[in-house]
Amino acid sequence: xxxxxxxxxxxxxxxxVAAGPEAxxxxxxxxxxxxxxxxxxAMDAVAPYLRADQSVIISSQASLGxxxxxRMLAARGIRPLIACWATTVTGGPMAxxxxxxxxxxxxxxxxxxxxxxxxxxxALSAALFGDRFGVCPNLFAISLSNLNPPFHMANAxxxxxxxxxxxxxxxxxxxxxxxxxxxxELDAERLALADRMGVTVRTALEHYRKSHDDLPDTxxxxxxxxxxxxxxxxxxxxxxxxxxxFITEDVPFGIAFIVALGKLAGVPTPVHxxxxxxxxxxxxxxxxxxxxxxxxxxLENDSLKSLSEQVLNGxxxxxxxxxxxxxxxx
Length: 330
Fold this sequence. Notes:
Residues 136-282 form the Opine dehydrogenase domain. This is NAD/NADP octopine/nopaline dehydrogenase family protein. Helix content is 43%, strand content 12%. The chain is built from 14 helices and eleven strands. Helix 11 runs antiparallel to helix 12 (270-283). 42% of the residues are buried.
């Protein structure tokens, strides 16, 4: 198939379409570039055909999905490099048959399974997508570095009638002072959970500054969002359909994940939990149940120390030692 892009990157290229999952056996690098809702199905399909000498990139990491894949591959006795990104390199909607690239991130962080191969993950990512990647210490840090869920849920909930009525509105412009305040409250819970897990992650403000150049000196999410909105000049519209990934992907695979990990770690997440309850009520759905990666990992029956060892070493690692992440916190 032929893919054509427009905007910040203008490319036309032919991409081979695999006849089935077995085709991944012929690739040097296998990349998961789909919404979180499809990660488990895709991983289940290709896991029997992956090779030990391959590399895997997950763009982007959702709900410790890299660990889910590592466990399946360990059952086959193989441990390929699994590189997990915090978010995507770029993004944009389809329009007139073209992918409209409105954003290219300045920097992305990469964590790997096992954690001590992070340098390899960064080198691989840079070779494919340019010098824009940095080392993230482990999968906890990368999973807690994804800022899409709090930004998207807050913006979608407080602008929901716009989405429901299919109105034209600005994604960044819709982050009013109230939406920004909700993002900051969600951010505080995420940062507290990261601290409990013994990792350091960027704040929402730092995320904006890493992703966009020359932003104003302010400690307000709202003010930074408005500056980005003015710069983007309508190129980043808000969602216009209730099936938006802002809710259907980011709530089960982002918000529900934070709530589940918070329960395991003993860290309260009342704002995340409230948002999850509201989304369930609005949609008449159980977004926790829709996270099939969490079901596959079975966190409820795991211990925090055991999970940390898996994050460091992957599954089936005979040299697994006591956690280097959580010793000071347990």
